[in-house]
């Protein structure tokens, strides 16, 4: 999933007993509550539907539901901040954010600096091409223009296949821009996370395309992230996550956004 910069700014608002998120100047999202006095600040980048998004100026999505359910089951309070992508990591480093959840792929490189929960979502990359395209694998796109969301694992797999300086690679700030350029003929294909790519293309009407799964793509696992050594928060997170896996709540959230097939 995402690995680098994004452009949303953060703003959080606490109102009475309810902790609310405020983003883009208005709106709010109720926070999960639990026992104890500690309130954990949760950072996310609400620009990656259906995992994190803004709807009517309110933050929502799969990961928001997951984290609120984890907090409720784990017995702790949370306050949401729509930090954007890079500021999420900066916030963890500086201590202004306690927990990050934003479709963050668990990688060995990230584990050097941060601690991750058990996985809560399994993802893989897909390739978007024209319906009549002969492309069957990523390798078939050599020499073609490929759109990706910048600083994501989609960008990584393309660079791994064709080199760090591949001239056909075009990075975008967000997935909708890459998909728009594909349908307008400015790129030949788009590579991106299955959940996000499927979410966008299903909104496209009267367009002919297909999604290809390349078996060479490695599976990815999303985890909830804290600064390395924050064992107190991680213990509570994994406890809550274990409970919602066992009681079916995690599956219920998955089915809400992706169906039960």
TrEMBL record:
Q: What InterPro entries does the database record attribute to this sequence?
A: Iontro_rcpt_C, Solute-binding_3/MltF_N
Show which residues constitute the signal peptide.
1-28
The chain positions of domain Ionotropic glutamate receptor C-terminal read: 39-260
Q: Which Pfam families does this one have? A: SBP_bac_3
What Gene Ontology molecular-function terms does this entry list?
A: ligand-gated monoatomic ion channel activity
Tell me where in this chain the Solute-binding protein family 3/N-terminal domain is found.
39-261
Task: Identify the keywords attached in UniProt to this record, alphabetized.
Answer: Signal
Q: Which domain of life is it from?
A: Bacteria
One GO cellular component term noted in the UniProt record for this chain: membrane
Q: Which PANTHER family match?
A: ARGININE-BINDING EXTRACELLULAR PROTEIN ARTP, MEMBRANE-BOUND LYTIC MUREIN TRANSGLYCOSYLASE F
Any idea what this protein is called?
Amino acid ABC transporter substrate-binding protein
> What is the species listed in this Swiss-Prot or TrEMBL entry?
Brevibacillus reuszeri
